[in-house]
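User: Could you write out the 3D structure of this protein bound to iron/sulfur cluster? I've included everything you need below.
Assistant: Certainly. Input first, then the structure.
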Amino acid sequence: MEVPNNEENMSRCICGTCPTYIEGDTGFFCSLDFSKKGPVRRGCVCSECSLWPEYELSGGYFCINGKAG
Ligand code: SF4
Ligand code: SF4
């Protein structure tokens, strides 16, 4: 399901706690689309995010695979 790009959803993003996250990156990749910084898979915490069940997300690694939906 697509994740609406709004402040409330963005504030719930936990990408900043993820081992794959690159410091200074945008986060919120499930809505914004893949990262331009070229992250490498080191685990994904998206399944622990409150948006995961709400928008029936799957797969994770949106920073590499691109946005949901
Ligand atoms: S599902 Fe992942 S990318 Fe989307 S807001 Fe949550 S932690 Fe961030
Ligand atoms: S999309 Fe997933 S893998 Fe990428 S930074 Fe966010 S939590 Fe980590």
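The chain has four helices and no strands.
User: Perfect, thank you.
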